[in-house]
Each structure stands twice: as C-alpha cells, then as structure tokens.
Amino acid sequence: MRGCAVVLAFVVLVAFAHHGDPMLGFTAKRAAEQRALEEKYDALLSAENLRDWMKSMTAKPHHVGSPHAKANAEFMVDLFRSWGYETAIETFHVLLPTPKRRVLRLVEPHSFTPELREPDIEGDATSTIRLDRLPPYNAYSADGNVTAELVYVNQGLRRDYEELERRGIDVKGKIVIARYGGAWRGIKPKEAAEHGAVGCILYSDPRDDGYFQGDVYPKGPYRMEYGTQRGSVLDMPLYPGDPLTPMVGATEDAERLSREEAPTLLTIPVLPISYHDAAELLKALDGPVAPPSWRGALPFTYHIGPGPAKVHLELEFSWDLVPAYNVIAKMQGADFPDQWVLRGNHRDAWVFGAADPISGIVTLMEEARVIGVLAKQGYRPRRTLVYAGWDAEEPGLLGSTEWAEEHADELRAKAAVYINSDGNGRGFLRMGGSHTLERFVNEVARDVTDPQTGVTVERRLRSRLQVGGDTEADKRNDLRLLPLGSGSDYSPFLQHLGIASLNIGYGGENGGGSYHSAYDSFDHFIRFGDPRFEYGLALARTAGRITLRFANADVLPLALTNWVDNVDGYVEDVQRLADTARKDTERHNALVDSEAFALAADPTTIYVAPKRKDIVPHLNFAPLHNAMVAVKRSAEAYDRAMEEHVESLDVSTRAALNDILLRLEQTMTRAEGLPGRPWYRHHIYAPGYNTGYGVKTLPGVREAIEERDWQEASVQIEILAGVMNSVAAAIDDAYSTINPD
Fold it and tell me: Which residue from 242, 166, 230 is spatially nearest to 400, judged by alpha carbons?
C-alpha cells in the first residue's frame, strides 16, 4: 500500500506540473481554463456510443448513391441537430460508374473462369448480405472487350517497365497483371495504358496483406484468399473530385465536361481480383523467371510472360450521376464567428466499411456530441466549429472536393485549419500535416494517454521511432509531422485552397487485410480492429483537443521555426537529388561506354543494354537558398516575439495577427498551380504525379529533377524562391503586428 501511495503522489505531482505547462497560442489564464475544459470533455466520452453507431451505420452497404448512404446521412443530421448544431445536407451530383458486366477468363493454354466473388464467412453476419452490395471492381475503369496475351508487371510502376525493357519485353497490345502495393492503385493502369497495354488486372498478393503476414480472416485479420480490394483508379494526381467538373462544385446545374473530354478517366479496362483467382492466371505464365523483388508469396515460381497465358477481359459500366450527401454541422463561435475550425471524416464505403471509414466518423460524432453537451452547460467555442461527414470519398475525394470548390472563396477567407481523420484502429498515433502545426500537435500528443501502455501517445510513438532506428527521435523535441500527399479529404483544403491541414488517426496493430473488401465489417472490427473502442476514445481525446484548442486559442497556434526546419530539409533533399543524379549519370554512362551492362548479363537470356543518359547540369539553387535565409530569419523573430508577448497582446492586435496567420498557408500556393496540373496549387506539398498518394515535397522542383527536365527545374527553383519570399513577407507582417516599432 505504501508503494501505491508513493506512485499516486508522483502522478499527482506530475499532473500538477503538467497543468502549469505553457500552451501554444494561449495566455496562462486561458491555458488553465482550456485544460479544465478538456478534463470535462474527457469525462463525457463514451465508447458505447462508438460501438452502437458503428453497428447501425455498417448494417448495410453504403457506397455513394446507395439507400443506406442516404439513411446514414439523415441519421447524422438528426443526431447533430439534437446536440445543438445548425445542420444540413449539401448534395452534389457526381459521376459514379457501377458494373453492368464483368467477365474474365483464361482462354489459353487452358480454360479457367475466376469467381470474381467474395463468399459468405461464418461468424460475419453482414457477409451474407447481397442487396445493394457492389461487387469487386475499380471505379472509373474504361468499358472494354479485349483478348490478349498476359504479362506480369510486378507492381506496375515505371521502374517495373524499365526492367521489362531491359529484358526485351513489350506490353503493347497485351493485358498486364499487377499486384497492389508500391504506389496508389490508379498509377498502375495509367502506366499500363501509357506503355500500350489494352487491359489491366490488379490483385492483392498474400505477401503484402494475406497469409504471409499472419492468420487470415476469420481466424486472423489478414486477407483471405477470396478477399478483393475494390477502389478508384481515377487519375487523382491530375485532380481529384468529380471528373466532369474540375475546379467547380458538381451542383445540379453545373456545366460538365463530356466523358470523352474528362482527362482523369481511364482509357483501358481494369479489374481487381483475389489472389485465389490470380494464382491460376500467374501459374499459366511462362517466359523469364521474375526478379526476386517481384516474387510474391503464392506457392509457385513467378514468371513474367508474355504468354502462353491468354485472357479475355470484358467490362461494361453504368455511367450515372448519383447524389453525394455531405453532412455539414456548425456551432457558431462566440468571439470570432468568421474564423472556422473545420473537422472532417468521410462516411461512405465500398461495402460495409467498419474500419474505413466508420471507425473514424463515429469518433468525430462522439467529439461533436460531447462539445454539444458542454455547450448546453454554458461553454461556447470562441471560433466557429464546422463538422463534416463527407460522402463519396472512396471514388476520388468527390464529396469534400466538390464542397471545397463550391465554397472556395468563403473558405479562403474564414478557414483557420482543417482537421481530418479517416479509418482508425489499435496502435500508434499517426500524424501528418502542415509543418506550421507540428509543435502544436506534439503538445496535444503529450497530453493524451495511450490506452494499452499508460504512457503518452507521444512517448509511445517516439519509442517506436527510436527502436526503428530513427536517431532524430532521440534528440529532437518535437516529433516530425509527416508531409501530406493525397488519399483522404484533406487534399482539397491543403493543396487546392492553401488551408493549414492535419490528418490524424491510430493504427498499426490491427492488420490490414480487410481493406476495401466485403470483410471490412463490424464483426471483423470488434475482433481485430479496436475491440473495446479504446483507440476510438484515444482519437476522440486527440482530435477533440486539437479542435478545441484551435477554436479557443488567443492566437492561432502556429510555430514557424518548425515549418522552416522541415522545409530547409526538403531544400537540401532536392539539391542532393540533383547532385546524386549527376554522379549516377556519369557512372551509368561510363558503364554503357565500357559495355559493362551487356557483359554482366546472362548470355543465355535476352538482355537489352540501357542507353547513355543526358548530362546533368549544375542547377543554380542560390535564389532558393537566399529565400530560405530570409524566411528562417523571419520565422525565428516571430516565434521569439510570440513567446515574449503572448500575455500582453491587446484584443485588436490579436485580431490583426490572427487575420494574417489564418492566410499564411495560402502564401505557399500559386494560382497557376503546378506544371501540367493547375488544380494542385501548393508548392510545398503535393501527391506525386507518378506515385499518387505518396507525397512529393517541393513538388515543382523535385519532379522536374526526377523527370530530368533541367530547364523546367531551373524555372521551378525561381518560382519556389518567390513563394518562399512571399511566406517571409507574410511572417514579417505578423511580426510587425506584434512589434509595431
């Protein structure tokens, strides 16, 4: 008992000291009030609500345009209104193809017809539901009827086609089969089409999320042999959202492109299949043995082809406009009603979607419910809260993108931050976003307890990074935010409108084998995802604090030296990329000249030696380095001034300062956008044109270097330097507001 008393005393002392910690953007008095509010907030959270709402919302398929999608939207509206929010459904009309005909057959060297169907699972109640259930398919595949030889292309990325070229294999006129992984799925059929393929088949290899990783469903969480990953193959790196209404909201009377004019639609048919069905196609291939890095976990030797396997692929879709129902709920701010804190999570799924996305949306709903309870007890946020339950995220961020495009001017004027979550599960905090928010999010992470270990979620994440070899985690005070590419609803806010954004959630210990299959179900989730909804509550505590602190801060909680530290690293990265390209090119050309590639190859196999590459010039990074010196000086001065003066700023100064900070992220954008894709306007973060979800930092410069377009790289360096100078000027304005003399 005495030992317990000592521990209790220590905890009390730590808690007391913790309550005296400074809070970014708050005066000491406001910080104490905020922590007291958060204690009340935590005490009101209920895991039972998360469980009940998930069971109801996943009871039927609820893809965009389905009856249960509308029912779920109306369910949310009723709840939010009962909690005191001004709530409405904003409807957009978006293009969504759904399958009319799906045919796949192996016709040579023997006959095989895949099942293209996910069977019922004993113990999974919803797996037997077929009404309104979409079969496995890839949205925005082209219609097509093709028969051709099959070629295995590994993950179907550019580097894989370079390997095929070295082996003298051409996919022109062929159907390719690629395994998921390595990049976003839409890149795979896009690359296939650009290399002349007439069709594409995608499958999940058991090495990636099946039995190689662990026990498969229903014994374990991993993908069983018939589980199939649905998903969009829209060309989102060009622009997300409704393919027929780029740059404008897809309202009922919006002017639309024709399908033939829409550049994000695929030109070849593509179909996802299970690894059970893929095995029969892959076993029928001959030709060269696949390189070691191409081999999956199926129990046979992987060959590339082409042939003798020949397949017939026939797809036909209904190309319909369907309603997407965005639920938008507002609680007006008491002090700054025209400054908005946006909090969003999507609601639609490919089938039942328990983990993706309902585990996230029920957490958002519980956050909003508790804030509603606090409001009825007299609390009012200082800034306006806007909660969003997005529809049509799965086909390509349609719901959020159309809403952001429709309200673009108002959002640029009012949105202080966008806070996103998606799926959630047991494990570690995942945090990505604008680096101006890095210190702020770390502060929150130090105030939330991990439900499994009892330490803070920041400490647990730091420990994982340290064990994984991240030496920076040993010494850097703030853990780095991951820069954001694409793949969820933050994209239109951050990369199109220039609104500071976050993407947060928990995971890493719940397996990933149910992803986009019919087995992402309530039964799967309560066995393997987050059985007691402990991490749902952890996310509610994390996102709730982020939302409430942003709503109530005296000054918007941005730390600009954190931003500079990260961006400075990206500048070093792109210069190193150019220097490495130069050295690698010199060595490559020397090997070509000495015929080393040909001599090192197996003479009994076909090998096409690579050609010489163009010389890499020395790029002039001086304008960018000079701009970084200026922005670093400005950021350090601002952060120092804020630390010194946050307690003494008067109301009018804070208002002027917040007005500048609210628009700071917008100075990182240009109206012209990135080369070849004007929808993406942010010059610090963008999804890679050839990677999809994966982020490219300093994308204009980085992608020009990667594409070996040296003239464009020089242009983009100058443009980026101009962006950095604009950021520095905005920070200087903020500093002058604090120190007018």
Answer: 242
